[in-house]
Amino acid sequence: MMRVSLRLARVMGIPINIHISFLFILPFIAIAFGFTALPDLFGYHIGFGDLPVGDLEKLFFGLVAAILFFVSVLIHELAHSYVAVRNGYVISGITLFVFGGVSEIEKQPPQAPGEALMAFVGPAASFIIGLLLLPIWLALRNENGLAITVVAITTSMMSFYNILLAGFNIIPAFPMDGGRILRALLARRIGFMRATKVAVAVGKAIAVFMAMVGFFYSIWLILIAIFIYLGAREEERGTTISMALEGITVEALMTREVSTVPPTMTARQLLDKMLAEKHLGYPVMDGERLIGVITLEDIQRVPAEFQDVTLVERLMSRQIVSVSPTTPAFEAIQTISSRRIGRLMVMDGDRLVGIVSRSDLLRTLEIKAIERGTSTGRT
After folding, report:
1. pTM for this structure?
2. Which residues are catalytic?
């Protein structure tokens, strides 16, 4: 299966990824920046369209400006991530994609402590970048010479688009930063869950309004409205899951009698075991030591004629994702979702004491949701 994101670098220990959509949209943004000819929008130059150069030069300048803009988006997300890590969140990565960027939260403490500050610093960083570039643009905008003009237009564009990015993200609608700020402020008075529902309702209402306006003026507004609406719904679902699993640990859900396989078992023998036990994944044990995990997906890579001679140790994954018995159930389901895996090994030190699967967590979630009279939105 093709990966949807490409690893670019690590900053502050956080992996920086580029989504496939980013690679598709980058040329279009470069063209828009390169050939836009609106030199006096609020005093800003926001494109190179009026520059007295050829189309290739305009395209090149537009591409440079597009890359600089996404660097600004990255700084915006790094500001979020820095504050998040300091408040106990675990950030698995930052991904740049078609609508900008997103910090991927792998572990969120209960009640989202520090959420208002974490949400605020992103738009603040963008706004500060925009303000810092203003003096450079003002100093250069009346100077002569192609090189100076290009620098002036570039700083003008980066100032304008960063201030626009800050303003857009402060809209009080999930998944925008303003939606998280609104929830954090409301939570102090009406509680976290009710605050989430109010913020989600506001976000959906804004999305519907944007879609209606976009129907008459711009398809981009409709696409952004869909993005906001779906993000708001997903945030509501995540919060519902968090509250439903509150106080439950992995120890209460895990299977203690774990069926394991040795590294010397063949792929054919493992398929027979899967058919008999109705499991799709197993820990691989070398004596008392856990050395890997093998799943049906791993075996599917082996042609049928080689299944009798291919050993588990050649197919298993040695990257073991584990939790402890005291890990909160919500954190476990976050890990399973972010890592896109079906099960977690439960380790007490170096000893395998159980296994918890996605189905275990979802089954518990459904029961708790019924007890509370809520819906998890599971499909």
Report:
1. 0.67
2. 77
